[in-house]
Amino acid sequence: MTNYVFNFDSGDATQADLLGGKGANLAEMTRLGLPVPPGFTITTDACRYFLAEGAVPSELEEQVRQQVDALEKAIGRRFGDSADPLLVSVRSGAKVSMPGMMDTVLNVGLNDETVHGLAATFNDEAFAADTYRRLLTMFGQTVLGLDAALFSGPLSIARTKAGVDNDGELPASALWDLVNDYKDVIYQQTGSPFPQNPLDQLWMAIEAVFTSWNGERAKVYRKREGIPDDLGTAVNIVGMVFGNRGSDSGTGVAFTRDPSSGEPGVWGDYLANAQGEDVVAGIRNVSPLADLEHINPTAYRQLLEHMELLEQHYRDVCDIEFTIEQGKLWMLQTRIGKRTPAAAFRVAIDLVDEGLISADEALTRVSGEQLTRLMFPAFDRANAPEPIASGVAAAPGAAVGQAIFDPQRAAEKAEAGEDVILIRDETNPDDLPGMIGAVGILTARGGKTSHAAVVARGLGKTCVCGADSLEVLDDHAKGPNGSEIHEGDIVSIDGTSGEIWADAVAVTSSPVEKYFKGELGADADALTRAVDRLMTYADERSRMEVWANADTGADAALARRFGAVGIGLCRTEHMFLGDRRELVEKLILAEPEQRGGVLEQLKELQVGDFQEILEAMDELPVVIRLLDPPLHEFLPSFVDLSVENAVNPTEANAELLRTARKLHEHNPMLGLRGVRLGIVLEGLYTMQIQAVAEAAARLSERGLQPKPEIMIPLVGDHRELEIMKDKANEVLSDFNVEIPVGTMIEVPRAALTADRIAPHADFFSFGTNDLTQMTWGFSRDDVEGSFFSEYLEQGVFETSPFATLDTDGVGSLVSTAVSLGRKANSDMHIGVCGEHGGDPASIQFFNQTGLDYVSCSPYRAPVARLASGQAAVKQKD
Length: 877
Ligand code: PEP
Ligand code: MG
Hints:
Blueprint: E1 5-7, H1 16-31, E2 39-42, H2 44-53, H3 60-75, E3 78-79, E4 85-86, E5 88-94, E6 104-108, H4 114-122, H5 125-143, H6 149-162, H7 172-190, H8 198-212, H9 216-225, E7 233-239, E8 250-257, E9 264-272, E10 287-288, H10 292-295, H11 297-314, E11 318-325, E12 328-336, H12 341-353, H13 359-364, H14 368-374, E13 378-379, E14 389-390, E15 392-395, E16 398-404, H15 407-415, E17 420-424, H16 432-437, E18 440-443, H17 451-459, E19 462-465, E20 471-472, E21 476-478, E22 484-486, E23 490-494, E24 499-501, E25 507-508, H18 511-517, H19 526-541, E26 545-549, H20 553-561, E27 567-571, H21 581-589, H22 595-616, E28 621-625, H23 638-647, H24 651-663, H25 675-680, H26 684-701, E29 707-712, H27 718-735, E30 741-745, H28 748-752, H29 754-757, E31 763-766, H30 768-776, H31 783-786, H32 788-793, H33 810-824, E32 829-832, H34 840-849, E33 853-856, H35 861-876
Parallel strand pairs: 3-4, 16-17, 17-18, 18-19, 26-27, 26-33, 27-28, 28-29, 29-30, 30-31, 31-32, 32-33
Antiparallel strand pairs: 1-2, 2-7, 5-6, 5-7, 8-9, 8-11, 9-10, 11-12, 13-25, 14-24, 15-19, 16-23, 20-21, 21-22, 23-24
This protein binds phosphoenolpyruvate and magnesium ion.
Magnesium ion binds at residues 713, 746, 767, 769-770.
């Protein structure tokens, strides 16, 4: 018989697959002796069974009943006991945390009778009524699927009637009225009364939590975060402790370090006389956690001790939920804290310094995506106007966009490609599509741990929350001093400082980008120090080098500053555009015997181009690829030429049109390009090889050490390379220089016959853009915009194979070519220069496959360096 239920005494943190993150960590905290209320977890197995079969497994009922018995014994109260009832919370908890995405019901076990028992036991009518109206609200919304407004409406009327601002101040009579109103609402809306039997409530809540796994917002969140759909959620049933038992009670959330900057210290929010989600829902403005020191020094000290213990135990930042019931501290949840990219770098290095983790582990605690985000721009403060307001700096970044007050509209505008700042009084999980679309999120209520802040950090969006000087209405917001923001106005928000402008503020590069460019020293601040140390460590650990793709001296110099130790791809086609296009046109039109003059002129220009880039990369290798694209790309468009020829039918226009027609190809990507061009268009490649040799010779004369390499594109057969290699040798022998000549491997046939090509090649470089295009047989220029979204939606692929290497297909060609190539030519130098060279997941594969370097765009070089170091660490493990 499968065991679907585990007591908190019997699990541990390693069982997140089965118990969900929350359940596994509750068990772990119990094991550590922390004050966790008794409870048990229903496994994700049970959820998967329920989702597949539409009903819970038959043995579950008995297993839950036994656990309820045990819980009753542990707590000393009985479920449904009208004198002194046991109440429980029913909380979702998947393997990976999905904050606010699934359902939770608190205070299960209350009914018209037990509520009086609760009032008598605690000698507090208002508390009992408040607890019941909360159950009715949560049950109504999450289990019965009723609209939140049906509950929040009467609540706000009750506040107005009683003349109070906070729910906690409502008198018992008002709360009893609410209880009756809510029971009526439930009856009217569902046709059935609120279930009075506590066990019925429990089962309905359990099934609602299971069902919420496939709720719309949970699905959207999983897609965005790449969380598999088939994990399911566990359900935690926990004995209730009450934060709403008066001013010596309360509930809070805490981080063991600042989740925004990583700075050590006490961070979190506390709300007195409150329960459950009140803190994160941004319903009332919360106090900073540090205030708890004055409110309840003993509980505060204990909390700090528990936080310290948890951080030492988990060796990472922990995010904690706790409740204080009449002075006594209870730990309700812990998990590894979500953090901003800046905090991730800072914390990783601090934990190394504190001896909690090794440098190897620190490297795996940060990601390429986080590093990319750290290189995003920040506001140019020197030229910024006065901000109109400020709030809590909840998720860093500088976001500028149109103010939009409705999440649905925000999502639509974002879909249409517009930059949007979503402005809300507070956010709730239904706002998720708008939050995903927005570049920034601004709220008037809630602290660093509000829903808006937590989700924004997870999504990597800039967020300012709790800007309480703003009054947010349906389509505009009123700010201090008569300022207003209307739907569609441009606003700027700074998630690092919390400032808000009703204007577009200019942005400048980030400190991390400046550090990489050498404009700021590594010691500029705690963040640059952390980045510098982790990058240095990544470089030490990595086996594979990082080179860059650059076509100009300026780009090459930038790449070098970003840590690239070579140029893996200098595309020469850009050098044939602009005002040089005319020369190329002449070359294409000329009879073979007349090409010499034009080639000579082009050569002089190319020598200049190559000198520039070789000089910027002095002493480092520069792989220059000979011309690749089809010739027609250098002619005016066929349609334009036809029009021009009709309007102005000169002999020259007619000739141009004839040539364009001759060169026209239905599938130019599969046509006369790359080495095919080099073989057919006599003199073109020879000219380029001469220019490379000439540029190197001129620099050597100046005492520099240029290291050019020549790369032949689109080779599919060894004979193509042989022909070009002979040509190159002939040219190079005149210059008395040694320049390696290699080939791209970007046609599947080249990969499959790499052993025959290798003897003629000094190096291989995988052109994974073309290799992906040709292996899949889809056009890299067209398909991403046409059917890829459907393919992603239907799970044909998880990510675009142009972004992350398809290791099963294209990757298998890469490994085949590496092993065939090395068998034939054991010291063959091998790299990759397609877009995948800058993608961390692909880099890991290239490392495993034994490549010597990856080459990517200069801005990706830092990310690639990090990924290469991480790949080496992972491979060791
Ligand atoms: C490639 O095909 O991967 C490549 C680097 O060349 P290009 O993108 O210029 O075709
Ligand atoms: Mg290519």
